[in-house]
Amino acid sequence: MKFELTKKYLEDLEAQIERKEEASIQEFFNQLHSADIADILENLDESEAKFVYELLDEEKAAVALMELDDDFRQGFLKLFSAQEIAEQVDQLDTDDGADLLGQLEDSDKQEVISQMEDQEHASEIIDLLRYDEDSAGGLMQTEYIIAREKWNVKRCVIEMRKQAEEVEKVYSIYVVDDEDRLMGILSLRRLLFAEPNALINEIYSSENIHYVRTNESKETVAEIMEKYDLVTIPVVDMQQKLVGRITIDDVVDVIREEAERDFQMASGISENVESSSSILKNTRSRLPWILIGLAGGIMSSQIIKGYESTLSFIPSLAFFIPLIASTAGNIGVQSSAIVVQGLASNDFQMKGIMTRVGKESLIGMIVGAICALVIFGFSYFFGGDDKLAITLATSLFVVVLFSAVLGTLIPLVLDRLKIDPALATGPFITTANDIIGLSIYFLVAYLVYF
Amino acid sequence: MKFELTKKYLEDLEAQIERKEEASIQEFFNQLHSADIADILENLDESEAKFVYELLDEEKAAVALMELDDDFRQGFLKLFSAQEIAEQVDQLDTDDGADLLGQLEDSDKQEVISQMEDQEHASEIIDLLRYDEDSAGGLMQTEYIIAREKWNVKRCVIEMRKQAEEVEKVYSIYVVDDEDRLMGILSLRRLLFAEPNALINEIYSSENIHYVRTNESKETVAEIMEKYDLVTIPVVDMQQKLVGRITIDDVVDVIREEAERDFQMASGISENVESSSSILKNTRSRLPWILIGLAGGIMSSQIIKGYESTLSFIPSLAFFIPLIASTAGNIGVQSSAIVVQGLASNDFQMKGIMTRVGKESLIGMIVGAICALVIFGFSYFFGGDDKLAITLATSLFVVVLFSAVLGTLIPLVLDRLKIDPALATGPFITTANDIIGLSIYFLVAYLVYF
Prior knowledge:
The structure is a homodimer. Chain A has 22 helices and six strands. By secondary structure, the first copy, chain A, is mainly alpha-helical.
């Protein structure tokens, strides 16, 4: 069923909850997709959400829980007993179960695991909890379908039926040897078209198979799945044994998060916040860069103070301080953004730092020359002061060139040092370029006038 | 086969090309995945790339062509005759074929189409070219598998075999009625487990089916597939007739592009550039915002000029111009980034503008108060001037509050006006806040001192 969340619907629902109309709420919600249910729950009070939640079918409820926003879920789970959480985990796929348990305090985790009904499922989840959540192991689920090389198609279908009960989405079958080592992949389509007596050995493909190891980073997993257009990827351990699979929907989340993180870094936000996050978290995530910027501003003030006598001699220099600083910042942000993006999409693998900086210098010179021309024209015709016009044009040209090179160089160097290059975008580069830009400006002024 | 591109490998390959060792190049390349081939080609000269390209298997060559970077492909295609391009399009899926043709001049397009061997394939591609490339129609392919409600499983498998030849990736089957209207979806897994005589009617699911219309925007398609974790989605026309399907790999590209575009906008880049783009394109994409920033800087200079007498009376006011301007910019960028991200992920559907602005004002007050305290401390203890300390602290508090509110309000208002809110991030908000911040600063100074 298609569902669109409206303010009107929410008001009606709140009235229904008020009147405790359990039957009609239940009937309506159990037709909805879990993702839509999650959207609705997030817009209710926690106690209202709990009321609705308890009316849901078991499996739908568990899946909806995982569709909730992290922050909301964290608060919502506090309303549940360990026993209730255990019931949810019993319904979830192993990867989701591990994610949910990962959100709990250690003592609660123990308690929930001990209350789970399906102890085999529980031990699989405990296995997954060992992996770093940012690795392939942390992303994978242990629900997948295997076939052995020596089976025939008929046997494979029978075995699949047994396994398929716990695997929600089947796109391909992993073929393993007797030691459970991954040998290749068999597509469902191939299986469907094969003769019942054909051996798996004869129909699966073992060439050009993509897989990852448990310790691979989630960014690399995303890169591989994106590059080779994969819908699932098998995960193997150090001995090449198949231990899990990762599905594209989880990888889409990784891609989204990565892009959001870069965007937030470039905007000077240091912690993953959403507009719905608390005021405290919001403030905390923003304060570090603002204070660094403030420190930069204080440094700038000291540089200008150093040129106090120049400034008192030519007061109109002060008018153009924001122009120089903001142009330096804008250029630096552009350059670093292009580099960070290039690094993220592996554009540079073959190109050296110097080639890149050389190209950027050329762009900087062109843009700098245009800016210089514009500002020379303005200050000459409207101000009528040649020296000021020369100072502005010269320093703007140098500042633009310098900012472009610096904006390119810093992220490239950080990347070489294995530090996230996105750190060098946004406020960092703006602050650094403000300081350098002003130093150049006053130095040029000094040279021109004295 | 796993392949990693290295500088060493490229040098060896270039030597092989030089020596025209066709057989060994051919053998090596035809084991590679098309995505890897594309990576290699992009690192060769166009003529070297053409030499290698002509040695590839037909299908691999066509797919590799589509894996190339847009800019590189545009140039590379110029080396091909219409006849040669037509041969590539014959090999491609309809969606890729349409994308390739879409990159050509209109006259070349005609020429290529007339040279295509498979005229049915050609007419399907021509149909696709009618759709806006940013709509579901522009994203879809006409390769998909259908089943009719009244077939039984045996017949369905036979018919599928006929259809499956041209459909590379099969995950599910679309069930249609006699008028080709979409009725529901049948998963391959369900089909595999069904009795041969069971009717399709009895086993397919028609509830909670997600589909889109041809005119749906690609962003909405991505949102739906991401929200409901879909691997493919059927596309229907106005009469509910099935006309195509969209696969997740194309949607992953949409998600990636969207994120990159927001990041570039926030960094003041107005056109989609990559680090490998030409110097001209690079300059063109960067100049508009730099010039707008420059205009902002000129406006700031006029504002400061307006307070010339104040400035000559208290010269140290000039020292803190960059501090005020950069803090205003930094705060504005943070606020607008959070709003733009919230809008992109539909976080606000239920919340009014005023709630959002109210919350942001509170955050602005907290951050503003902290900044005011820091700068008051600095200027009081190091400068020893009470009036300056009061001016700085008061104006910084007001500027932060104002910038936070403006940074929130502008993108929200743009969004209401159906203008891309990302326009209001980065240089725009920095420039606007510079001007407003300085006006506040000098006004406060005037009030404090006179």
